[in-house]
């Protein structure tokens, strides 16, 4: 019984220890979860810090590269500045040389231009003298031609006047002849009409005389039209001659 009691006491102690161990295990599990969560957060923070550090390293590297590049660019700019200054000095020297050459060329051009002007002046004076002599010769020739044309125009006017008088006389003669013919025809027609009325003949002779009378009138009209046309042509030629005479006088003036 003592052993049993002792065993129960030991079992009770073991249960108490187990309970304590269970409590400690639960505490340990809570701590494990807490520390696991904390570890996870720390790992994430570590990863973000690593990313930040990498980006900072990259930025620093870029800055270093930019500094090196900037240093190289400064060297290049200094070299280019030196080259530009030397080129500007060379251009300035070239400009001075060109200015001196332009001045010398301008003086030479002035001398050549003065020579050309003098030569052109002499040539213009010679050409003017030649032109004046040619104009005088042409004026004398034109004067002779105008005098000849005036004589021809006067002769043409005389011929036109004579032709006009001849046409007028011919026209009067034709009119007189036509009047006589017309009177004879009319008298003949009246006699035939009287004879017809006396003998009571048919109307055929009267129509014949009418046709003859009409024929004579047509011939007269044709002759008069031809004479009028000829007179108009003569007047037109006379106007042309007067216009040419006026133009010749204007040219002469």
UniProtKB/TrEMBL annotation:
Q: Which residues form a coiled coil?
A: 70-177
The family database entries (InterPro entries) matched by this protein are listed as: CCDC152
Task: Work out whether the entry's keyword set contains Coiled coil.
Answer: yes
Q: Which UniProt keywords apply?
A: Coiled coil
Q: Which PANTHER family match?
A: COILED-COIL DOMAIN-CONTAINING PROTEIN 152
Name of protein: Coiled-coil domain containing 152
Q: Which gene encodes it?
A: ccdc152
